[in-house]
Amino acid sequence: MTLVLDHLRSRLRAGHKLLVPYVVAGIPERSAFPDALRSIAQHADLVEVGLPYSDPLMDGPLIASAAKRAIRDGTGPLGALDLVAGLDVGVPRAAMSYYNPIHHLGEKEFCRRARDAGFAGLIVPDIPHEESAGLRAAAADHDLAWIPLVAPTSSQARVDALCASTTGFVYAVSTLGVTGTREELSERAAKVVASCRSATDVPILVGIGISNADQARAAVQVADGVVIGSAVVRLLLEEGAPAAEAFLAGLRAAVDAP
After folding, report:
1. Ramachandran assignment for 92, one of left (phi > 0), alpha (psi -120 to 50 degrees), beta (any other)
2. Is 29 assigned a catalytic role?
3. Out of 3.40.50.410, 3.20.20.70, 3.40.50.720, 3.40.50.300, which CATH number does the structure's domain 3-146+223-256 have?
4. What stretches in the chain show pLDDT beneath 50?
5. Among 6, 35, 59, 143, the one annotated catalytic
6. What gap in Å lies between CA 131 and CA 122, rounded to an integer?
7. Of 52, 78, 51, which is closest to residue 67 (Cα–Cα)?
8. Which one from 45, 48, 224, 245 is the annotated catalytic residue?
């Protein structure tokens, strides 16, 4: 059992739903990021830290722009690991990285550096499951939980394979397309969660397109928790860490409401 899975299951046993905010390393700015991460973590069960990358295929305009800003300010995908090294925020952290920087450094070396920087999980959205065995093995060897994404268009056979690979939680993608806020929670969310439920007993979290407390509350009626990214990144960029923390406090209350 990994640290991520053990921690999330303990939170569920305590009667909580799971709240996982996503941040871009180096945002709102490099020097302020450690304090921003501490603020965000106060209301989180785990924090997903995006490693800035210049060609983020899964990300919409807001997060892509934030990643480019971070890179301009000196925080690249590998430098982001050093930025958070030794930083204790009270909850586990998962690194979200595209595969190119991992390939460039080497799978084993990347996982070693991620572990040494204090990460406990790994999310890689652009590596196909069929090509991920080596990286999954390297992650396991370095105590990193593997967190797969399951798309709403995945066949049940593919859902079964993805869910069988996880050692942390299942990231159920609620809608097609890139990251970003949406007006309402996609009807696909319940279907993809149900497909995952039939395949695994690990926590299932809904992400992509959740932007407010009402959507988060609706998502946790079927899932174990939510991942929320663009809304948090927008607040960090436009209003700063206190606004993002207040927003997450409201989400925490919404998802835990009886």
Report:
1. beta
2. no
3. 3.20.20.70
4. 176-185
5. 59
6. 15
7. 52
8. 48
Q: What is the pLDDT of residue 49?
A: 97
56-67 pLDDT tens trace = 777 878 999 999
- At residue 175, the pLDDT reads 64
Residue type, 123: I
Query: Of 185, 194, 190, which Cα lies nearest the Cα of 159?
Result: 194
Report field, pTM of the whole predicted structure over 0.90: yes
pLDDT of residue 189: 82
**Whether 59 is catalytic:** yes
Query: 3-class SS at 97?
Result: coil
Strands 145-146 and 121-123: parallel
- Tokens 């690991």 appear where? 81
User: Which two three-digit tokens encode residue 35?
Assistant: 């304090």
Single out the residue of 144, 88, 101 nearest to residue 121, CA to CA: 144
